[in-house]
Amino acid sequence: MARLRVTVVQQGGVLGGAERWWLQLADATGRLEVTGIALGAGATAAEWRHRGWPVTVLPSERTAPRLAVVSARVLSALRRSRPDVVVAHGVKAALVAAPAARALGIPVVWVRHDASFSGRLVALLDRLTDGQVSSSSWLTDGRSTCNGIVLNPPRMGAPLPRDAARDRLGLHGADGELLLGMATRIVRNKGIEDAIRALAEPVAGSWSLAVAGLDDPAEPDEHERLVKLAAELGVAERVRFLGEVPDFHRVVSAFDAVAVLTRPSPDQPWYREAFGMTALEAMTGGVPVIATPPVDLVAGAGGLAVPPRDPASVATSLALLEDDALRGKAARAGRDRAQEYPAAAEAAGRLVDHLALAAGRPGAGHPAEGPPISVVTTVLDDEDGLTDLLTGLVPQLGPDDEMVVVDGGSVDGTVAVALRAAEADPRVRVVVEPGAGISRGRNLGIDLARHDAIACTDAGCVPAKGWLAALRRAFDRHPEVDLWTGTYRVLAEKPWELALAAVGYPSIDELGRRTPFVRTYGRFLGRSFDPSMPTGRSVGFTRRSWQAAGRFPEHLATGEDVLFGRRIVEGGHRAELVRDAEVSWAQRPTLVANLRMLRRYGEGSGYSLDRRLMGRDLARVAAYAGGSVLAARGGRRTQALVAGTTIAYLSVPTARALRGPRPIATAALVPAIAAARDLVKAHGAVTAAGRRLGGST
Predict the structure, then answer these.
(1) Mind listing the pLDDT tens digit for each residue in 42-89?
(2) For the chain, where do the domains classified as CATH 3.40.50.2000 start and end?
(3) pTM of the entire structure?
(4) Which of 426, 438, 620, 681 is the most buried (most CB within 10 A)?
């Protein structure tokens, strides 16, 4: 149950609402292994270190050239931390983190806490990132996010009793004095000035103000300005600055009301509070809220709404809240309203699930709890392969799981292997259906399966430890997903095996490091793990999606699994990758046997007449034919273009070969193996399509 490795990029100086949001959620879950990149030193970076997180502190810059320098340093830090996913908080963090993470092929999720820098820049960051999190629903207005969710700040636990909270803060007012609280950074846009001016109004004469928060380096003189303002207005003795108050939610009960008065300014007309964590903390503690939009919508009947930059309205609200009955009514409404928001543990679970899905590790760090699974496998004359599969898989079955083995009429000892396993473990069931091919066998097994969560793998595959647990976590944490595409590692030792693995199959090792070139290569040329194009070696799906897709296509002997996945997605169902559902798979023992298998794969594509499946094979035929003609008859520039295209085409397989064992001998075989693989597969596709179109089977 490996935790999700996360690197968070965020402002490291002032500990504001956005920084508290992340800390509260990270503290509420044990599913994360966190490293931090702080943009500037200060309170947030110190909090990270206090939690034992490794922290890299980089400068907090503003200009584009300096941000580019910081991005390069972020790239270097990410190389060292090697996370599963990067979490960038705010626009500046996303600007430096997204390019660096993209260059390294690491998924990146952008968290947006306010409406700064709207328009094209926001659209660009949405396109650059693999997922988006907004701390309030209004931050999604006008955006076309990909894999975006809204995650409000969490509801924290109940506060201390009133007297204990006041003792902790050192607040003991005179009889009849009412106390207004604010927890905020000390900057102009937070509306502290409006609260001070409200105290000077005659109708608010019973109220005092206590401000919990640190000075902001961006406005170092604001604290002093507010103190002078209070003195000028004659309310200095009724205004206190408490400094930093950790865990404000624990002491919010010290106040008779809490104000969130965030306001726009001429230079920041877009500015408003994204959600208002302080408001939710007050509501949870039964304290009425005075709030400007849109936080008034969060508070509902638990507070009073006031326009921004309107001290008179704040004073009027304070006067109304002098009534004990009205305060009590608002307190009860606020408590009820707060219960509609998730507690910290629930919110943290949603966040980690979102990050883990973006990283291709759904449910990472969560116990393998979830639905019982029916594992279906088909087999024909492969007693050794079935033995290896049973040995690796049966120990992974849960008490309510089952494994359905469908034999297509084996004449060797395969059925005996299956029956011995069923005799030893009642969770194993055996069905013998002579003549049943792979698709027919899978459909039969699923018909007989007891559960709605289905997993498939093949004899000849050996599931890694945790294969079934990875699928179970995925089913459990994401019931909205209908197709889970697992991964497979191709076993190889001889140079030709290594070359064929590099040329013909995707690489698990590239999944967490999908650089832009590798992404582009995989998208247009295949040989990457595509959630919508699973293989029967490692796949999970729901019964409803299997039925909606029309079951596995029984007219295909090969390629049936990929076409099945395509039909699920085309039917409007969601497909996702689960990297941890890994099996190992051995290639055929000879090169000729592998080429025959590849030709049959091509025939499957041809018989399917699926445009995407056939398109790549036909494109390769055209490329080989056209490239040969151009190389033979073209001029130097044309020949150079053909050579460059060939090098680009072979670059990823060659790089894989050079990273593996016996690199020189393997890389030398890549061109020939690639040509043989492409041509036999294309031949199978073309001939099968011709037979299908001609009405012959």
Answers:
(1) 889 999 999 999 999 999 988 889 999 999 999 999 999 999 999 999
(2) 4-150, 162-338
(3) 0.89
(4) 681
